[in-house]
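Summary for the funding panel

The consortium committed to producing paired sequence-structure records for every protein in the target list. Below we show the first two records in order, beginning with the earlier of the two.
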Amino acid sequence: MNSHYYTANPSGEHELREISYDFKGRKLHFTTDANVFSKERVDFGSSLLIQTMEIGEQDRVLDVGCGYGPIGICAALLAHRGRVTMIDINQRAVELAKLNIVRNQISNAEAFVSDGLAQLSEENKFQTVLTNPPIRAGKETVFRIYEEANQHLEEGGSLWVVIQKKQGADSTEKKLKELFPHVELMNKEKGYRIYKAIKRMSKMFVGEDILK
């Protein structure tokens, strides 16, 4: 019996395959395998997030639940003077992500195993966090990712989430609004929604004055 993709050590047999994805005129190539998310193609939700996300060329970016790496690798191309960290609980997925980073000649990205953001130190801060959250893992796990992302964002940084309406978009929106002062629906298509949540700035500069 095959393991679930949100598993630290999937036990199913390997089924390596090659897929491709066009991103801004560049054809990317990915190796995928059994027991990783969306092994046959880059899924629609991830693709919609890739098309919608706004990333600066010098941003420090975190891809949570990176799978075999399509979101993080596209982010690395946008943040070509920045750095992308890609994490997943699934060791098989992380090994594929590492392979695909090299395969697509990405020099500003790394991938490692982490249960949510637990393996990141408190000092690891990012300007952008991206996630296509592991819905099958349950609401508690998904909400923990949102909470941990908030802790690892710089002030004014943004969390980008893609989620289907039928798989909990409304509860995600409610949770994000509890955690972040500004939450915006950035895109929606075919039942998927893209949310952008911005972390509160502790200080606002107005002329020469600082308002706390």
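The next record, for a separate protein in the list, is shown here:
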Amino acid sequence: MQIGYGTNFDRCYDVLHGSLEKAAAKVTAPQLVFRAATEREDGHLGYQDGRLVIPRKRFLGSQAIFTDRPSCLVHGDMHGGNVMVELDGGRPEQALKRVCLIDYRNAGPAPRPLDVLALQASVRLSDAHAIAETASPNPAGHELAAVLRTAAQRVHAERRILAETWRDDVARATQHPATMRPPWERTTRTLTELLRANFQDMQCDEYLASAIPCALRQCSFDIGVVARVRMLAWLSAMYAQLGS
């Protein structure tokens, strides 16, 4: 299994570009401005007070992504739907009794961050669903601009997570006011910290080399424009980190 997950990235770009173009057409500029990425130039989604960058297509084939990386045995599809949780008493407030995984058809050797990334993607999609629920079923105009702006602004938290969880001292990275963070951010931080504790030689660039294709792949799924912008916030933050 390769870092690219066997994904047709040209199709990922087509789906992402098409979705963002339609969204921008429903919103009056300058609330939302979209430019597609090309082979040589980055694209962007500009919103009222910021901009998300879409990596140029050539980047996905660069040495920053496709180079030899350590691998290990992974589940291969560890999204939330394949994690079964049994609670003691069957109610959410009860203590956790057992956790098990299902669907091992993609198990095998793969980049070490793969399973954690699948879980982190599920967490971010849940966050996107919560954002989308604040709007009507088919938002347009100012309402669409507002909900997409909320999704896009997650880029600030994503940058903070990268900066704080990939410090050289993992123990220091855990010393943040966890109770002040939203649930999706706390869970994402915990997963990254556990990944680092398990693979103590892992550096941020190894994580990003797997995470960037993962995030772009998520953008091609049937998840709706709010979730695509939310995943683009993750992708844009990681792209900036890798280039810094």
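Regarding this second record: The chain has a mean pLDDT of 88. Residues 164 and 173 are 5 Å apart (CA to CA).
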